[in-house]
Design goal:
heterodimer, A: 842 residues, mainly alpha, three-stranded mixed beta sheet, 71% helix, B: 150 residues, two-stranded antiparallel sheet
Chain lengths: 842, 150
């Protein structure tokens, strides 16, 4: 069926680039016959990234034939990649490097080898069809443009991921796909299911992403390079001491992304996304990212037992779990989602092996799956659009009303079931062959596990897809009250699905030309050495072919027995699912956070602030007593205050006393203003006009804010009556004394503990030469230490956003009532403090 | 409607305050002033309008610019910081000088950055003031506990 090329007959066209030369040396010294230096790869990524906002700004929902325009950027990149098939097949790879953060080992290195091109073609090819389909799916919807924005941003991140030749750049793109897919899944944000599903996907994939980052950094440090091609060529990387830890972390990242057990639960939840997004994310892109990463690292680590057993066991179990669960669901998209989980498990299983069969099976399965699963999802979306539901229980006989769609789904189903002569058939044959190989070599345990799992899961997949096909399209009567046909889909709506299906169905017929052009370079990248493929559709009555026939027969039996099977699966307790475990964990976390918050911040504002301030005062007191400052040798050298300063002190004291004695809030606020103005005068006396101005303005705005806030706050009986319990008065007095000491001590320590030379003369001297300004304060703020100021205004803006959200929150009245009730229960009536807005700007 | 004297004060004082804000901003690099202070003055001016006319009328007067002011300010500040990149360093000041009527004027990225600071400060203060004023304008749910004294 296929064979590895004999080494002496190695054709020059398959010579791989020398990994070592391209990895460790700068691109200038690379062998120019094997790489081409240009900016085309970066240009392609830029085209996709720029198309994203552009398509949004064009307001596509106003136009009827926008699908053509929307598909154009993706189609252009697909076309360019198609033209690269021949040179890449000859071992001529595109390599581009751009500096990003060189000190961190991060560079935007792009490298178009066989595997990158293979995945890239699927990403943009399927993406073209999805972009075209979206125009019909969101016809007239004002949010269509926003969807295109997300779709193209996602596509660009995904393409960057597969083209990237730097571990860290790959990670950046990886997180890009996590974020954009989160937005895509949560697109219908008015539905709780969409938001929940999106959050779950985000939490699971980004948690895995963190593990992945740690793993990649460990690997990169061990290898001494973050270049992927360099890493793969590093001798002894597989046996390094850190490799098992790094690989485990990377497995976590890949398995969460690619929905392997026990992380598979986020994928069906992500089906709340709009159908074009589901079709794209779960057939061709997002979930393939983890698989792609494993395939990338395969040449270096595939010989490790850790690699082999992890992938074998995880893959087999996920495969069985997904295919068994699929038939249980009556939602078309959920059924397809579990079938996707099964295929992902299959791909992981294949990556465990080290044989050419397994490589070929991997490559063919990836493309066959993209070409049948995307049309199936798209068709589910069309059914949803036309009938208003995609629940199998309410559907029947669509084959009569939507014949073209029925034909499309039937053709895709044939490929999924593995009926010859489709690509799906070829993929299944190769899968069984690679399971057969260990059996022939006498590895009974491994062989029977792989072969058995593959057979079983293939059989249930046949049952699941037959169920979908029969129940939706061909049976006469639905189980429940049937949905009515709203409107017929136009030809353009069905066309993308039909095109992909035809490619998948007929691709296998042209296998002779496709395998050398498309499959062989990808297989070569997996094997790490050149490979010649001889795939054939027909190869006699081998055991594998007979198994295939048995799968089809038994799959039909599963289909016929679907009702009891569904009942059995539905009767399983929910506690067994990993979704249940995840939900329990998340709920426990919420409860924990709630407890902690009520414990720390459950009391009214004043005691909370007292805790913070008292701790600060205690710290300063500790510093004050445990240093030489306690003896205060420098206190003698302090000058006596002048008359003006004395006067100001008296004024401030008077203001403070008036605040305490005030009988109403308004007068208390005004008296507090007197204190603030005195401080302003202090600044003026000491020659700091900038500070004085700022203090004055802050004082004015602060008083307005206080008045506005207190207008809304229930009067405090203690303050208004002018009397409180003696204990409360004493504690407040103590508090005030502590804070007075705090301020005093801080000023004193600042004044007398001059460590090192003052930086002020430097600023005074250089303010004009560096910042061209004679206002030193301003030059420091906006020029010399502009970075600090940028951080400060960012914090300011964030605080404003938080305050704004809090103030307009619909829960605010509710919260207020709850606080009041709690206060009544505690018998306490503390004076609330206004939101602090006078963020310091020093 | 609020008292007529407040409206009169607003009519006269608000434009003056806004001019002072611009003045303080422009001279900030050499004399006391600068973006932060100018932002506070501008916020005080807008608050005067809020007190005189109410938050809805204020929103009408200053148009749609109040809400996104925070974001615009941050973007201006980051742009100013990034312009220096072309010259080889983050936050590297770049200046142009020209003569207008015998006076030498200089404009540079630090001033652009200062403008960003000012916009953020105005945006922050006005966000709070508007929301709180709106809350103060609508009567609280239970009038029983409402403070009766001024």
């Amino acid at each position: 069926m296929l064979q590895r090329a004999p080494s002496k007959g190695l054709s020059a066209s398959f010579a791989l680039p020398k990994f070592s030369s391209s990895a460790h040396s700068p691109p200038l010294t690379e062998n120019t016959s094997q790489t081409r230096k240009n900016t085309v790869l970066a240009l392609c990524l830029t085209v996709l990234f720029v198309s994203a906002p552009l398509l949004w700004l064009l307001k596509p929902h106003r136009s009827f034939s926008f699908g053509w325009w929307a598909a154009l950027p993706a189609a252009a990149v697909t076309l360019w990649q198609t033209l690269q098939l021949i040179p890449v097949g000859q071992g001529i790879f595109w390599v581009e490097r751009y500096g990003w953060a060189p000190t961190l080992g991060l560079e935007l290195a792009l490298r178009l080898d066989g595997l990158a091109l293979f995945f890239g073609l699927i990403i943009t090819g399927v993406g073209t069809c999805i972009a075209f389909y979206t125009a019909h799916y969101f016809a007239g919807d004002p949010r269509q443009g926003f969807f295109y924005l997300l779709l193209y941003a996602f596509m660009a991140s995904m393409l960057g991921l597969v083209w990237s030749d730097n571990l860290l750049a790959l990670f950046v793109f990886w997180e890009g796909t996590s974020l954009t897919s989160y937005l895509l899944i949560a697109f219908k944000s008015e539905y709780k299911a969409a938001v929940d599903g999106a959050r779950r996907a985000l939490i699971v994939t980004t948690a895995g992403g963190l593990a992945l980052l740690a793993g990649l950094v460990l690997l990169g440090l061990e290898a001494g390079t973050f270049s992927i091609s360099g890493l793969l060529a590093t001798p002894g990387i597989a046996t390094a001491a850190v490799t098992p830890i790094a690989l485990t972390l990377i497995f976590l990242g890949a398995f969460t992304k690619s929905a392997q057990f026990p992380f598979q639960f986020w994928l069906p939840g992500a089906m709340a996304a709009p159908t074009p997004a589901s079709a794209y994310l779960h057939s061709a892109t997002m979930v393939k990212a983890g698989i792609f990463l494993l395939a990338r690292l395969h040449p270096a680590f595939s010989e490790l037992p850790l690699w082999f057993w992890t992938l074998l066991l995880t893959g087999s179990f996920t495969m069985l779990l997904g295919s068994l669960s699929a038939i249980r669901y009556t939602d078309m998209k959920a059924l397809l989602a579990y079938a996707t989980v099964a295929v992902l498990g299959m791909l992981v299983l294949l990556l465990a092996f080290d044989s050419t069969y397994a490589y070929a099976a991997f490559v063919v399965t990836v493309i066959a799956h993209a070409l049948y699963k995307a049309p199936l999802f798209l068709s589910a979306g069309i059914v949803d659009h036309a009938m208003g539901t995609r629940d199998l229980r309410k559907l029947a006989g669509l084959g009569r009303s939507l014949p073209l769609l029925a034909a499309t789904v039937a053709l895709a189903a044939l490929s999924m079931a593995g009926v010859p002569p489709t690509l799906g058939y070829l993929a299944k044959e190769l899968l069984l062959e690679s399971g057969m190989k260990p059996l022939e070599q006498g590895q009974w345990l491994v062989g029977s596990l792989a072969y058995g799992a593959a057979t079983l899961s293939a059989l249930f997949m046949v049952g699941a897809i037959l169920t979908l096909l029969w129940e939706a399209f061909f049976r006469r009567h639905p189980e429940e009250e049937g949905a009515r046909l709203h409107h017929l889909p136009s030809f353009g709506f069905v066309a993308p699905a039909l095109l992909l299906t035809l490619l998948g169905a007929l691709g296998a017929l042209a296998v002779d030309s496709v395998q050398n052009l498309l499959f062989a370079p990808a297989v070569a990248a997996l094997a790490g050495e050149p490979v010649e493929l001889h795939l054939k559709l027909w190869h006699g009555f081998t055991p594998v072919f007979l198994t295939s026939l048995a799968i089809l027969g038994l799959g039909t039996a599963v289909f016929l027995a679907r009702s009891p099977l569904r009942r059995l699966l539905n009767s399983l307790p929910a506690q067994l699912t990993s979704l249940f475990v995840y939900d329990q964990l998340v709920n426990a976390l919420y409860r924990f956070a709630y407890r902690i918050t009520t414990w720390i911040q459950g009391s009214p504002m004043a005691p909370q602030i007292s805790v913070t301030l008292l701790s600060a005062a205690l710290l300063v007191a500790y510093a004050f007593t445990h240093s030489s400052l306690a003896s205060l040798p420098l206190l003698d050298s302090l000058e006596m205050p002048s008359l003006t300063e004395w006067l100001l002190c008296v004024l401030a004291l008077f203001g403070a006393l008036a605040t305490i004695r005030a009988r109403s809030r308004l007068s208390a606020i005004i008296a507090l203003g007197v204190v603030g103005l005195t401080v302003t005068l202090f600044f003026l006396v000491f020659g700091a006009p900038d500070l004085a101005l700022t203090q004055l303005l802050i004082e004015v705005l602060g008083i307005i804010l206080l008045v506005l806030v207190f207008f809304r706050v229930r009067p405090d009986p203690d303050l208004d009556s002018g009397q409180g319990t003696s204990w409360r008065t004493i504690s407040k007095l103590g508090m005030a004394a502590a804070m007075g000491f705090f301020g005093f001590a801080v000023v004193l320590i600042n004044h007398i503990s001059q460590v090192g030379e003052s930086i002020s003369p430097y600023f005074l001297e250089n303010s004009y030469s560096i910042g061209r300004g004679s206002n030193v304060v301003n030059v420091i703020l906006v020029d010399i230490r502009g970075y600090d100021t940028l951080g400060e205004i960012t914090v300011l803006a964030l605080a404003a956003l938080g305050g704004y959200a809090l103030l307009r929150s619909p829960q605010l009245p509710l919260l207020r009532r709850r606080i009041q009730m709690a206060r009544r229960q505690n018998g306490a009536a503390d004076q609330p403090t206004p939101p602090k807005t006078e963020t310091g700007h020093d | 409607m609020t008292e007529i004297y407040l409206r009169l004060v607003d009519r006269i004082l608000t434009p003056i305050l806004l001019l002072i804000a611009i003045f303080l901003f422009l001279r900030g690099h050499d004399l006391p002033g600068g973006g932060f202070i100018a932002g506070l003055v501008a916020a005080a001016a807008i608050e005067l309008t809020i007190l005189a006319l109410g938050s809805a009328a204020t929103r009408d007067r200053y148009g749609p610019w109040l809400a996104p002011l925070l974001g615009i300010g941050l973007m201006v500040a980051v742009t100013a910081a990034l312009i220096g990149m072309a010259g080889g360093g983050f936050f590297l000041g770049r200046w142009i000088q020209f003569e207008v009527a015998g006076e030498t004027l200089k404009l540079g990225t630090p001033q652009l950055f200062d403008l960003g600071v000012m916009l953020v400060v105005v945006g922050m203060a006005v966000t709070y003031l508007l929301r709180l004023s709106e809350a103060a304008e609508t009567p609280p749910p239970s009038t029983k506990h409402r403070e009766t004294r001024p």
